[in-house]
């Protein structure tokens, strides 16, 4: 697929199936395999994600399993697997990554049926090699992995696990813990957003089109996503079955520093801005997460005055949504409910979105104004607007 062939569709009149059909079939992806974050203290980070988000202990690798340079804790909830990795010494790439970026997403791993072919097809189309195919094995079988680079220091790893029956990957052992708070209802990763520098959005949307066979699901410009002070532009890229969606954001010209510029400053380069995770009951999920101490962006109360006229009838109690700060938007396919956490570390970089789709395939365009105003209020408090 050439970049010129991308369909930059700003609504869904063509139907979502036609958008997905644009994606090439040379790189079939079954879904997100795992997301790995490099963090300063994986043991403490794991405790936070278990306590606050309801993740469960799954697997561990470290000194006790023969790994000498790092410790990794694997958490699971629904189909989501988070790997939290910390270095055991101050030298090496992991430590350098944390010094530069803080706690951050390093790996977005994709579950494929053939990792070797996925690697070969993307590399011959221009992907930069992270590592060539590797076969890892133990008594539970074998896993084939291979990696390519994407924006900034972020990488994609292809994971082929059809011949493996172990807990996670070879080299990991089951992690049992007496402390396992109940899940909060998170099901799967809906999308992951990358922030890139001004002028790089088209480069990376072209990368996902030309190198990985993705299609442009929707495009937002600075007229769609802006306030009086700041703006951004975004292209949402999707694979053929729609299970992988990567919005790519870049800043647009504005009177003040946008959230994308703030992110790039504090992250010190392009990277993954947020992970959107889906739930089937957002009222329960957010009620539970708030009770456990997760902090969310404040939505102005006046936002809810226009919801009935803008969105129409919904099954949820609007008063409860207002109490919890959950936003609502509708497209041609249905409606969605969404809310955004504050950054999950002191650097104003990585945060999470919680989303419930009730037919809607879009990304909450009707909420952009209120969302941006909420983010700008946070930036003003931090003195970075």
> What form results from the Cα inertia axes?
globular
Question: What oligomeric assembly is this protein in?
Answer: single chain
Q: Calculate Rg over CA atoms.
A: 20 Å
Lateral arrangement of strands in the main beta sheet: 6-7-8-5-1-4-3-2-9
The biggest sheet, with number of strands, parallel, antiparallel or mixed sense and barrel status, is:
9 strands, mixed
Calculate the mean pLDDT score and round it: 89
Taken as a percent bin, the fraction of beta residues is 25-35%
Q: Compute the separation of the termini in Å.
A: 39 Å
The helix tally amounts to 10
Tell how many strands the DSSP assignment holds. 17
Overall helicity: 10-25%
Contiguous runs where pLDDT drops below 50 for at least 5 residues: 1-14
Which structural class fits the helix and strand makeup? Answer: alpha+beta
Give the helices and strands as they follow along the chain: HEHEEEHEHEEEEEHEEEHEHHHEEEH
Descriptive overview:
This protein starts with 15 loop residues before the first helix and ends with a helix. The protein is globular and about 60 Å long. It has helices at 16-21, 42-53, 93-101, 115-124, 201-210, 259-267, 282-291, 307-311, 318-324, 368-382, and strands at 31-38, 56-61, 70-77, 80-87, 104-111, 129-138, 141-149, 155-160, 173-174, 186-195, 215-220, 232-238, 245-251, 271-279, 327-331, 334-340, 351-358. The chain has 385 residues and is of the alpha+beta class. A hairpin with an 8-residue loop joins β2 and β3 (70-77).
């Amino acid at each position: 697929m050439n970049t010129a062939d991308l369909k930059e569709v700003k609504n869904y009149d063509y139907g979502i199936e036609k958008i997905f059909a644009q994606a090439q079939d040379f790189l079939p992806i079954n879904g997100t395999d795992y997301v790995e974050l490099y963090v300063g203290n994986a043991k403490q980070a794991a405790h936070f994600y278990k306590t606050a988000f309801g993740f469960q202990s799954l697997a561990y690798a470290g000194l006790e399993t023969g790994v000498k340079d790092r410790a990794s804790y694997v958490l699971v909830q629904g189909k989501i697997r988070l790997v939290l990795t910390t270095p055991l010494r101050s030298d090496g790439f992991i430590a350098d990554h944390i010094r530069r970026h803080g706690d951050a997403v390093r790996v977005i791993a994709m579950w494929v049926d053939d990792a070797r072919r996925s690697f070969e097809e993307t590399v011959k189309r221009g992907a930069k090699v992270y590592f060539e195919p590797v076969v890892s094995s133990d008594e539970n079988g074998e896993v084939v992995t291979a990696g390519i680079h994407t924006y900034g220091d972020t990488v994609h790893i292809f994971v082929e696990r059809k011949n493996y029956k172990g807990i996670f990957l070879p080299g990991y052992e089951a992690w049992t813990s007496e402390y396992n708070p109940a899940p909060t209802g998170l099901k799967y990763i809906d999308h992951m957003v990358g922030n890139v520098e001004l002028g790089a959005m088209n480069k990376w949307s072209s990368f996902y089109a030309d190198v990985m066979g993705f299609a442009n699901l929707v495009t937002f410009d600075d007229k769609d996503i802006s306030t009086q002070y700041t703006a951004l532009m975004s292209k949402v890229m999707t694979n053929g079955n729609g299970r992988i969606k990567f919005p790519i954001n870049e800043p647009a010209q504005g009177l003040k520093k946008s959230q994308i510029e703030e992110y790039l400053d504090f992250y010190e380069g392009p990277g993954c801005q947020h992970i959107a995770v889906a739930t089937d009951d957002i009222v329960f999920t957010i009620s539970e997460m708030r009770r456990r101490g997760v902090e969310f962006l404040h939505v102005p109360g006046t936002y809810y005055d226009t919801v009935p006229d803008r969105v129409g009838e919904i099954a949820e109690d609007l008063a409860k949504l207002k109490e919890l700060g959950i936003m609502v938007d509708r497209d041609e396919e249905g409606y969605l409910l969404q809310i955004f956490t504050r950054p999950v570390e002191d650097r104003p970089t990585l945060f999470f979105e919680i989303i419930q789709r009730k037919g809607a395939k879009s990304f909450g365009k009707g909420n952009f104004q209120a969302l941006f105003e909420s983010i700008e209020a946070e930036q003003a408090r931090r003195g970075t607007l």
